[in-house]
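Lab notebook: predicted structure, single chain.

Context: the supervisor wants predicted structures on file for every construct in the current expression panel, including those that have not yet been purified. This is the next one on the list. No modifications to the sequence; it matches the entry in the shared construct table.
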Amino acid sequence: MHLHYFAEAYNLSRKQAVKVQCLMPANARSHAVLTTESKVTIRGQTTIPAPVREALKLKPGLDNIHYEILPGGQVFMCRLGDEQEDHTMNAFLRFLDADIQNNPQKTRPFDIQQGKKLVAGMDVNIDDEIGDDE
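Prediction complete. Output recorded below exactly as produced.
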């Protein structure tokens, strides 16, 4: 499990980005049950220490982590809860996965030229939010 640090996005110095002061709000630090650390690789990645993964009940490959950068260079990190999941979409993706596994003969390459014809003339901004009614 890896973390990526993007110092440039927050105008942080390399030293601040590499040396995360804590993974909780400052007022909670005095109540820490356990402290641990990890090294940041040259690629800006780190392994989440086992005690942190266990405390957050992180499941590799399944869970997502939410970060908040606080004043003073502190970072709050928590596991996104199940309420963030789209159960309908997950069920649909499981259905597709099972269908592909059980019927590989039905899977065929997508014709990119046909796809371009289908979306020709559409004005799409990939950065726009998609509302619930769309």
